[in-house]
From TrEMBL:
PANTHER family: TPR DOMAIN PROTEIN (AFU_ORTHOLOGUE AFUA_5G12710) (PTHR47643). Coiled coil: none annotated. The lineage of its organism: Eukaryota, Fungi, Dikarya, Ascomycota, Pezizomycotina. SMART domains: SET (SM00317), TPR (SM00028). TPR repeats lie at residues 307-340. Keywords: TPR repeat. InterPro entries: Gramillin-biosynth_MTr, SET_dom, SET_dom_sf, TPR-like_helical_dom_sf, TPR_rpt. Residues 385-563 form the SET domain. This is SET domain-containing protein.
Amino acid sequence: MTSQNDANTIFLTEQEAERIRNTVKDRLKKCSELVGHAREPRDSKAAISQATGASLMADMGGAPDADMTQTKGQGGTLPALTVGQPYSPCIVSLQDLQPMKLADLQMDTHHRGRRLTVKRASPVVTLAARSWTMVQDEAGDETERLEVCLRKSRHGEDILESASVFVIKEPYFTLTDQGEATLRIDHPSDLIVCRDEFANSSLTSANEVNGHAEDAAAAEKIARTCKDKGNAALKQRDLPLAHAKYTEGLKVARQDVVSYTNPDLARDISRNRAYVNILLNQLDEAKNDAKASLTGREDQRSKDLDSKAYFRAGCAAYNLGEYQEAKGFFDEQQKITPGDKDASANLRKIEVRLHEQEAGTYDLKKLGAGLSRARPQVDAASFISNTKVRDSPGRGRGLFATRDIPAGEIVMCEKAFCVVWGHESEALTAITYDVRDDRIRVSPVGLSTSIVQKLLSNPSQIERVMDLYGDYQGGGKNVSTTEDGPVVDTFRVHDIVSRNAFGPGSQYGEEGASNASTGLWIWAAYINHSCIANAKKDFIGDLMVLRATRPITAGEEIFLSYDESNDYDARQTALMTTWGFECNCALCAAEKADDPAVRKKRRELASEADAFVEREHWANAKRLTVVKAQRLARAMDDTYDGERYEGVPRVATRRIREWLAKASRRR
Ligand SMILES: C[S@@+](CC[C@H](N)C(=O)[O-])C[C@H]1O[C@@H](n2cnc3c(N)ncnc32)[C@H](O)[C@@H]1O
């Protein structure tokens, strides 16, 4: 992530850092000693009462969250999370997994090829970044702890609170940092949530339908009931329930036995589910549902229904940023219902988006004026056609100009794939200790969670995100869906966020390190770093606007400066800690060859210059003050070797030189 400014920096006390490291190392040691050992049965009563107490405490705001870490600076208290050894999510469909029981669990083991059905047996303990509860298997004779990391579901509710029956795919049984045995879910797709009302689902009876007329009528009735329940839930604004009911109804209505006699039932449910999907931001399914609901008939009622369907498909495509496709849908809508005002309004909006996308011309003032805390996102298209991705030797892939770009002109503009603003409830920063490189970092965990959820809701986007650079490449199998739904590897998302996220700055009020806004811009994520960058980014809401800071020729690589510190050592440390590389641009090469004592002297003079600039305003500077500034600038210049710094900027002198330029212009 782009570095925070000083006011936002989080400092851990040495004791805290040590405590985090030791806790994790102790846990890993215990885990390695226990691998494959049989699980020790729990005393059910005691376990449930322990969870009930902890849940009460958590609800009252006094949760004994042993994972909270005290920080100095603006961070306050933050959750501390371990980034352990990554493992892949389950990519096998539920029906191909063998059932197991709690009693079969082995310590610190991924039970590959197995599935475990459990029911919740205690209240849920909701902590900042995770939640846990006690569960029992179907017979109720064994009790175990179940913990979910990234605890919120796609619909924003706590996953464990959302139901009482769960199926765990390939259960991972391990220890908490406090050494307590637990089932642990890292990938949301490894936990199948069975809503209570569906446990004894009418689907079972529908599945048994075998083609007799009376069975067909029974199946149709079931589908109709589901549709009605979905409509009722929608009226109550219970969108997850409405979605679940429509989905259940569709499963039945799409069976031959129903669709043969009443094909419109599946169409009606699909059209309704398309609407709910748009509200839930599940745009892939919204688009498919809307298309599946089309009748293609010519009578007025059918035309009205198809007009609605085209409208929904158009909205889904528009919100996915697929403007050409959206145009196609709204054109169709206009064709069958010519007077429709929504269709023409949307077509006008799309014309603007397509122009932005093709020509890179934006009304940036207007876009900025429409922003507020309640509406932090702009309605704009991305413009990326001046650039392309290709190999950048020594740096992986990079972004290159496809034409000459004059200084000050837009290189590219990009709408964020996902942003979590500091003022939103999703914003969550955590201290993460990564066992792979022994480093402690500040991680935008809320952004990772939102990205995982967005991908689960819109699987068509999984490939684009997973193509980004991350240290962990996954298990080598790029499976993004099974029969049970989309699969997203949260460890990969975490690593991608660590190396590719940007901060759009505090556009909507005060932010500290614990609630800094962060986001992912997929195309901009291909831009490599140079301390002597040729582009600079700015944000209007979630639109990143990248401009050339000097003329860029076609074929040249675009560079941003990930860290703008003037000090070589501070810069290298930040680049290594946050992005995992050592910069060898011309500036770093020149500075690296400086004697450390010279660098130290330059650093001291730079601090002096900073203090001077803060203290003395150039507008009222007296002659003596100007002379003092000139002396300081000269002293800094003397720390540079003229030959080695030929053509290389003397970045430490920048501030004082700018001050001098302004002061002398005034005279
Ligand atoms: C935001 S991504 C940039 C795109 C990336 N190169 C790729 O192949 O997808 C950041 C990562 O690119 C690499 N990188 C960026 N600038 C670099 C540089 N100047 N030298 C070496 N590696 C660099 C580092 O691995 C860093 O973590």
